[in-house]
Amino acid sequence: MAWIASLIVTPLAAEGQQRRKLPLVGYLSARSGPGDEDEAFRQGLRELGYIPGRDIVIEYRWAAISNDGLRLAAEELVRLKVDVLVGSSGPAVQAAKTATTTIPIVIQAAADPVGSGFIASLARPGGNITGLSLMIPDLAEKQLELLRTIIPKLSRVAYMAQAASTYGPQLQQAQAAAEKVGVHLQPVMVNDPEGFEEAFASIRGRAEALWVQPIFNTKSVQKIHDLALRERLPTVSSFPLFAQTGLMLSYGPNHLALPRRAAVYVDKILKGAKPADLPVEQPTKLELVINLKTAKALGLTIPQSLLLRADQVIQ
User: Fold this and answer.
1) List of residues 6+ apart from 160 with CB closer than 8 A
2) How far apart are CA 194 and CA 184, in angstroms?
3) Quick one: CA torsion of 162, 168, 172, 177, rounded to 10 degrees?
């Protein structure tokens, strides 16, 4: 069941009609509750002159990783007749896409919006969806190469993603990248943290490293880190936050920059732009973060050349 909340925007019941005149934005997330990404989205709006509660109304819906919860939450936001619907991740965008073909949808973050069928192309999205691509398919080979720099004889990598999400195209890209780098990929799909123990048991003795896809929240990443340390598995992912939380290595966009950019799309749409005419953006800055503490706990030595390239080294 969806965990549902809305932003209180007016004192008491003051002028309900006036409140409804404000732009109404629906924010759909696959997380279990509020987090720093929500605040980054509000900050992005504030930078554009929208003060939540004064200039704009935001209806939040959190539905953990449940496809049913996301579907029901998306349908509710559509019934509220929101002016724009923001999907925080691929599964949230998929739920929004299923719920409406007319309300503009802004992708806050999706690994491969073209491969997932959300848009026709990055330059010409078409339809009612636009926003931000994580560019994950293009990063896959680089992330594996970084792992290989640390573990030259690496040959078997487990690929952990959310079973309930739209990860078919991304998995195909990951497998293609693994073939180019020369490693064998073992997909491990999980729905929620309760499945982590079973997932790790399934790769025990069959993988030399773990590639974590950017769908899990911080609490889940911490659990993945703990289990990976227990199993002596080096880890790599995309978001800097994941390495800051404990994973050994990350290379990709800053996760807080994405909701701030999503706010820019919301602003353009509220001012009359059509999603079909707004090209989907890819990250312009990618960050390499190395958790040296985790590497040392695994008995691994990070090459000095890699440390010098890192944007952040966590001691």
Assistant:
1) 188, 189, 190, 199, 210, 211, 212, 213, 224
2) 26
3) -30
This prediction has a pTM of 0.82
Q: Where are the domains of the chain?
A: 3-134+255-277, 136-252+286-314
Q: DSSP characters for 56-69?
A: BEEEEEE-TT-HHH
Question: Could you name the CATH architecture of 3-134+255-277?
Answer: 3-Layer(aba) Sandwich (3.40)
Domain covering 136-252+286-314 in this structure, CATH number: 3.40.50.2300
Summarize pLDDT for 230-286 with one digit per residue, the tens: 999 999 998 899 999 999 999 999 889 999 999 999 999 999 999 999 999 998 889
Select from 217, 256, 254, 253 the least CA-distant residue to 39. 256
Tell me how crowded residue 75 is: count the other CB atoms within 10 A of its CB: 16
State the Cα–Cα distance between residues 91 and 157, nearest whole angstrom. Answer: 24
